[in-house]
Design brief:
It is built from 14 helices and 32 strands. It is an alpha+beta fold. It is about 25% helix and about 30% strand.
């Protein structure tokens, strides 16, 4: 087994891995950016090292710096979590080059499944059904047009190196193909440094179902049931559950066996997930995620298997602790992604400090989070605050338990998806097992207020941020040559010890306020078009003097890894244009003025 492991990630997934390492008796090392100096996950590691500024490209994605830190810390393995470098074959090879084990699949498997076009061909050869389309990249929209005609509309334009809904556009007919093609190429280049896209048939209302697999270095491979991830907005998952309400036992078996064939076809070992589009009793391969998934938790709840611990054992060269006959799923589990997003404002990111925080507790409830009162949700990373997971004996019991847990969950400061989840879990379509595709598409396209349930008691106050109450113990951090140290000082309760002079000042109790989002389009000028969020302008689509109609896109603003279209609220002429591509904008900053 490993003597020390570095976790090349942040937030709740870093804490999840640290906990598994602690249970195995393996010392752990955290790395963090300047933006995460006060992050909660650092307290769960035995050591922590600063690796660079806030932007991920200068810290969590900076391979040389991470490996330099790993060598300095004396680790013999690195766990990448999910996101960042988790599916980066070059990182896996770089780890091996310095004698460090990458806790994940072999680089060859990552590469084989990293290209969606190559993966489609591999799966077709392995007898795994694929969606009708092409298995190679398309260079220009002119090349794409006859292929789209042959496949038949609607068609999906997808990034070959994509995943997580990035680099994905849909053309309902030929008139939309150019915009879809260029949008997918642009987003693919930004997120994956690869503009290659391909076409496949778009299935309007399929279920998104995935199979969890485990495989070791000794030729053993198993599947651990399915997860239904069909409740999405903008191709980003919101709720996951297992088992799926629409998958029959025969379909489940066929998908599981196909997933094992897929893993064996690329020499896979570690935890992984095969994603499928399901329509009736048919299923089509979508992609393989060569890492631990965000939603691995629901599988753990129904199967009683610690997937992260299995990852670590497999990476150490040990066989899996279970065989296919040992997998006996029981009950039903849901996961809600508690994001800092405002569902009533097109799911716009809503980063902010967390002023008060309390997690739900009780039977069958699990919360994987990376925050506490006083934490801040930064605007440069993913907006997920926590994952709320519940288990019960059947779907209806689990649904009611989730409602209870959501009622108890208190997060003040940022706007979160808690009210949205609470509302969705009582929609009849969802109760009946539906994916609510049309409802969520409408909410993602236009401001849609979430009805407030009547008759629900207010939960008791949650603990406020640490600086809101007097504390007898003060904790500080110091960095010495990039390594983090924790320092504790004890001061009289109700006072602060000022650095250097021993001065004490009373700490005022902060008044708790609930953050309310400003309405979309709010501005002092009637013709002004404001940015609905803080972010970076990716593309400007209008010019000074140009006539625009209501709904025409003025520019695209990227915030917290999501592209957001800022549209004209009324027809007019562009009188002022205050932004350029690459420019940072603040929430409610005026982008353009229409006359």
């Amino acid at each position: 087994m490993f003597r020390k492991v570095l976790v090349a990630n942040r937030g709740e997934i870093a804490i999840r891995v640290f906990r598994a390492l602690r249970e195995l008796g393996i010392p752990s090392v955290a790395v963090y950016s300047e933006a995460d100096r006060d992050a909660l996950f650092l307290r769960f590691a035995d050591e922590a090292f600063l690796i660079g500024p806030g932007p991920a490209t200068e810290s969590y994605l900076h391979i040389p710096r991470i490996l330099e830190t790993a060598t300095k810390a004396g680790v013999d393995a690195v766990h990448p979590g999910y996101g960042f470098l988790a599916e980066n074959a070059a990182f896996g090879r770089a780890c091996a080059a310095v004698g460090i084990t990458f806790i994940g699949p072999p680089p060859e498997a990552i590469e084989a499944m990293g290209s969606k076009t190559a993966a489609r061909q591999l799966m077709q050869d392995a007898g795994v059904p694929i969606v009708p389309g092409v298995t190679e990249g398309i260079a220009t929209v002119e090349d794409a047009a006859p292929i789209a005609d042959q496949i038949g509309y609607p068609v999906a334009v997808k990034a070959a190196a994509g995943g997580g809904g990035k680099g994905f556009r849909v053309a309902l007919d030929a008139s939309q193909l150019r915009d879809a093609f260029e949008g997918a190429r642009r987003e693919s280049e930004k997120f994956f440094a690869d503009s290659t896209v391909y076409l496949e048939r778009y299935l309007p209302n399929p279920r998104h179902v995935e199979i969890q697999i485990l495989a070791d270095r000794h030729g053993n491979a198993i599947w651990l049931g399915e997860r239904d991830c069909s409740v999405q907005r903008r191709h980003q998952k919101l709720i996951e559950e297992t088992p799926s309400p629409v998958v029959s036992p025969d379909l489940r078996r066929r998908m599981g066996e196909a997933s094992v064939r897929a893993a064996q076809a690329v020499g896979y070992f570690s935890a992984g997930t095969c994603e499928y589009l399901v329509s009736g009793e048919e299923f089509f391969f979508l992609e393989m995620n060569t890492r631990i998934q965000v939603e691995h938790t629901v599988t753990e709840m129904v199967c009683g298997v610690d997937l992260v611990r299995e990852q670590i054992h497999i990476a150490a060269g040990e066989p899996m602790s279970l065989a296919q006959d040992d997998v006996h799923p029981r009950g039903h589990a849901f996961e809600c992604r508690i994001n800092a997003e405002d569902a009533s404002r097109r799911f716009l990111p809503a980063p902010a400090p967390i002023t008060a925080y309390r997690e739900p507790t009780g039977p069958g409830i699990r919360v994987d989070s990376g925050v506490q009162a006083g934490s801040s949700v930064p605007d440069i990373y993913d907006p997920m605050i926590a994952k709320l997971i519940v288990w019960d004996t059947d779907r209806e019991a689990a649904r009611r338990r989730m409602i209870r847990a959501l009622d108890e969950y208190v997060i003040e400061g940022p706007v979160t998806l808690i009210p949205f989840h609470r509302w969705l879990f009582e929609q009849q379509e969802f109760i009946d097992g539906g994916a609510c595709h049309a409802t969520l598409a409408a909410m993602a396209d236009a401001p849609t207020p979430i009805p407030v349930p009547e008759g629900r008691p207010e939960p008791p106050p949650a603990p406020e941020a640490p600086d809101a109450e007097p504390l007898a113990e003060r904790s500080f951090t110091a960095e010495v040559e990039g390594k983090r140290f924790q320092v504790r000082l004890f001061v009289p309760e109700g006072s602060l010890a000022a650095a250097g002079d021993g001065h004490r000042a009373a700490r005022p109790k902060r008044k708790r306020e609930k953050r309310a989002g400003a309405p979309v389009g709010a501005s002092g000028a009637s013709g002004a078009v404001p940015s609905p969020m803080q972010g970076t302008v990716l593309k400007v689509l209008v010019e000074l003097g140009q006539q625009v109609a209501a709904g025409d896109v003025i520019c695209i603003v990227e915030a917290m890894k999501m592209e957001n279209e800022v549209a004209a609220h009324a027809p007019g002429t562009v009188k002022e244009l205050n932004v350029a591509e690459g420019q940072a904008v603040q929430a409610d900053e005026v982008i353009a003025v229409l006359a």
